[in-house]
Amino acid sequence: MGGAVKRRVCLAGALCASLLLAACAPYPVVPTDPALPRSRELVDTPFFPQEQYQCGPAALATVLNSAGAGVSPEQVQPLVYLPGNKGSLQAEMLAAPVHYGYLAVPLPPSLDSLLQELSDGRPVLVLQNLGVAMLPLWHYAVVIGYDLDRQLVYLRSGRDRRKVYDIRRFLKTWSRAGHWALVAVRPGEIPVSATAQAYLQAASALERRQRPQAALQAYRAGTRRWPEQALLWAASGNAAYSLARYAEAEAAYRTALSLQPGKPAIMNNLALALARQDCRQTALEVLACAARAAPANPVIDDTLLEIKAMPPGTGGCRAFDCPVPGVGRRP
């Protein structure tokens, strides 16, 4: 969801139920993916009864435990609950799983995405607005199943272990919250409905929390799923470099440049990876190409000084052909 993040306040289960809007369903809701099974329920999904205003910690603990993290709502609460708001914001919900080494990946805002994750065995944390536009009542819950023939969805919600919704009524509450949803996964796992951009953002949170090994595992999985995405290859290179795995970093950077030729930031990082392998001359040629693409770039200037201070090196180094006009190519 774009713009300012809205306040998310959780209600007690009984009050939530009393405020739901009735809905008639003259026509069944039909997903566009014909391969989806007609029904699926993840009956083994953990259940944490919600304390007042604590739907965020309870829902997040539910999906984290389903992904393999043994955490309780009480452990999650300090990471996501904001006492002044009497609730949890989406930003905190997305950031908290990284504390335990897991990724929180936002889903595309569609019923198909939600059902695809469920059919793949993954419960989905959703945000609902159980009120109306002028009087919103925000609530986090976890969708654990559906039945397309009966037009029902099943949730872990509030104090209800198995809350049954008419699918249209659920979609209204979810729509009023912008169809916001996430799933929790281990590094190396990718939600079936995830987009490359959403996955990259989720994986990058591991790097920001100084978990380079987990980040590298996540990025590598991303390059296998979306091999055409240069940014995933570049991110994989960065994670490998931070682990001093310079040959792996070089290979990832070269792949990224094959997909996005002449990108100065990637060439800068490739030069560093080459220099760390005693390939100073090749590294300088890469930097000359980067400088041609981005003149007077202070980052490239600093890298040039760093590499010039290194010993010349005599290792066998793979040549680099500069794709930027005006820079000579090495034979």
User: Which percent range describes the beta-strand content?
Assistant: 5-15%
CATH class of the largest domain: Alpha Beta
Q: Mind summarizing the main beta sheet?
A: 7 strands, antiparallel
- What is the helix content? 40-55%
Rg from C-alpha positions? Answer: 24 Å
Annotation field: number of helices? 13
Distance between the termini: 50 Å
Overall tally of structural domains? 2
- Examine the coordinates and then state which fold CATH places here, giving the name of the CATH topology of the largest domain: Cathepsin B, Chain A
The average pLDDT value, as a whole number, equals 89
The CATH superfamily of the largest domain is Cysteine proteinases
Based on CA inertia axes, which overall geometry fits?
elongated
Query: Unreliable stretches, pLDDT < 50, 5 or more residues?
Result: 1-7, 12-25, 327-331
Q: What is the string of helix and strand elements?
A: HEHHEEHEHEEEEHEHHHHHHH
Label the CATH architecture of the largest domain. Answer: Alpha-Beta Complex
Structural class: alpha+beta
Would you mind describing this structure in some detail?
It is a single chain. The protein is an alpha+beta fold and 331 residues long. It has 2 domains: 13-22 and 35-185, Cysteine proteinases (Cathepsin B, Chain A, Alpha-Beta Complex); 207-308, Serine Threonine Protein Phosphatase 5, Tetratricopeptide repeat (Alpha Horseshoe). It has helices at residues 13-18, 55-67, 73-80, 90-95, 111-119, 167-175, 196-208, 212-225, 230-242, 246-259, 264-275, 280-293, 298-308; strands at residues 39-41, 81-82, 87-88, 103-106, 124-129, 138-147, 152-157, 160-166, 181-185. Residues 1-7, 12-25 and 327-331 have low confidence and may be disordered.
